[in-house]
Amino acid sequence: MSLSGRLQYFPLTHALGIGAALIVLFTVLLWPSEQTPPSQHTSFRIELPPATEAEPQTPALSWESTQVKSGDSLSTIFGRQNLSAVDVIELAAAAPKGVLQLQPGQTLKWTRSEDNHVQQFVIELSPLASHTFSRDEEGALQYQLEERHADYRPRYVTATINNSLFYDGSEAGIPDQVLYQLAAIFGWDIDFALDIRKGDTFSLIYDEIFLDGDKIGDGNILIARFNNNGRDITAVRYEDSDGNANYYAPDGRSMRKEFLRNPMDVFRISSRFNLGRRHPVLNTIRAHKGTDYAAPTGTPIKAAGDGKIIFAGRKGGYGNCVIIQHGSRYQTLYAHMSKFNRRSRTGRIVKQGQIIGYVGMTGLATGPHLHYEFRVDGVHRDSLRVKLPKAKSISSSEKDSFMRKSKAMVNWLSSFTDNTTASLDSSL
C-alpha cells in the first residue's frame, strides 16, 4: 500500500502534528554550525586579587600577679619580678598621693613588654575597687580608679545561745565577720565572757554583697536585737548627712561608750581585779589592780578608747607595755605584750579599736596573757565593773531623720519575728 494510501487511515490532526515535527527536525539538521570562541567555555574561573603578605599580629599580653608581703615596697617587688626599675618612678609620677602605699595581702597584677616594661598595672583594693595604670598612645602611664557597683541584699537571721555567741551563731549559718560586728555593737552593754546566759537570743538583719550574681562578702549589720537575761537591747545603724555611720538605740542614744569593755575579741579571764591577791610568781600578797585575759600568743590587743600613747616600751614586771591617756581623767595600761604594733609609739594618737600590740608573756608572767588596767583620776578601778561614760547621742540636726529610719527599721525587724511579710522602703 502506498504512503498516500496509509495516511488515509490517520486522523487529520495526527497527520498535521507529524508534519510539523519533521519540519523542525530538518531545520536543526540543516542549520549552519558556528565555532564557539575559545574564550567562552561553560566552566569559569574566579579571578582573585593578587596575594598580599599578611600583617604580623601583636601577641596578646598575659597577666602576672603577686601578693604584697610585710615590708614590701614597689621597688622590692619590681626587683623580685624582674620588672623595669624605671617604671617605679613613672608609676610614682602618675599616681595620686597615697595610692602606692602598699598593704600586706594586697594583690598586684600587671602585663609586661618583651623588654620587661610594665604595660598595665593594677593594685586591687577589693573586688569592687582597684587602682589601675595603663599606657596611652604616647606610651605614658595614666592612672584611673576603677570602681564596680555591687548588689546589697538584706538577710534576716536569728539564734538562741546554748553554748556561746560564736558557736551557736555559726551553727545558725551566720558568718564570723557578722558575729564579730554583733559583739562589737553590744560589747558596751554585754560582757560576752560573763553576762551571757543559756537561752539568750538575738536576731539581726545584715547585708550580703553580690557581684555579677555571685556572693563576694558580707556587709554591715543594719539592725540587731539582743535578749540577754531578760533585757532587750536594740541597735540601729544610721549614717548621717556627712557619711559618718554609727549604731544607736531606737531613741537616739549612742550604743558606743567612751571605752571598750574588753580590749580583745577572743579571750578567757584568768584573773580579776583583786587588791588582796597572792602574786603567782612572787608568792606574796600583792594587789592585782587590773584584769588578766588569757589568750594565745599573738592575739591582737585593741585600744579601749581614743587617746594618746604616753608610754610604749619595756616597763619592769609589766614587760612590753603600752599606756594610753584618754582625755584628762582616764588611763588604760596593757602589759606583757609579745610585740607592739609598728604604729604604737610614744606620742602617737590612737583610735578606739585600733590594734596596739599582741598577747605575750614578757615581764613577770607565767603564761601568755594580757594584763589590763583602767584608771580614773589616777586611781585603779575594776575595768569589768566600772560604769563607762557614754558617747554622744544623735545630733539634734539629725534627730528627725534618725527617728523616721529607726521606727521603720524596728518595724522591719519585728515583722520577721512576727512571721509577717517583711519589706523596707529602699530610700531609708
Q: What's the total helix number? A: 7
- The amount of helix comes to 10-25%
Q: What does the largest sheet look like?
A: 10 strands, antiparallel
Report the C-alpha radius of gyration, rounded: 41 Å
Total individual domains: 3
Kindly name the structural category. alpha+beta
Descriptive account of the structure:
This protein has helices spanning 3-7, 12-30, 74-80, 86-94, 165-171, 176-186, 399-417, and strands at residues 64-67, 107-112, 118-126, 129-135, 141-147, 151-160, 201-211, 214-228, 231-239, 245-248, 268-271, 291-294, 300-302, 307-314, 320-326, 330-340, 349-350, 355-359, 369-376, 379-381. Mean pLDDT is 84; it is low at 1-10 and 33-48. The chain has 428 residues and is an alpha+beta fold. It folds into three domains: 64-147, Nuclear Transport Factor 2, Chain: A, CATH 3.10.450.350; 149-257 and 390-421, Nuclear Transport Factor 2, Chain: A (Roll), CATH 3.10.450; 268-381, Glucose Permease (Domain IIA). 18% of the residues lie in helices and 32% in strands. It contains seven helices and 20 strands. α5 (165-171) packs across α6 (176-186). The protein is globular and about 70 Å long. The strands form three sheets. Strands 11, 12, 13, 14, 15, 16, 17, 18, 19 and 20 form a ten-stranded antiparallel sheet that branches. Strands 1-2-3-4-5 form a five-stranded antiparallel sheet, with helices on one face. It has a five-stranded antiparallel sheet with strand order 6-7-8-9-10, with helices on both faces. It starts with a helix and ends in an 11-residue tail after the last helix.
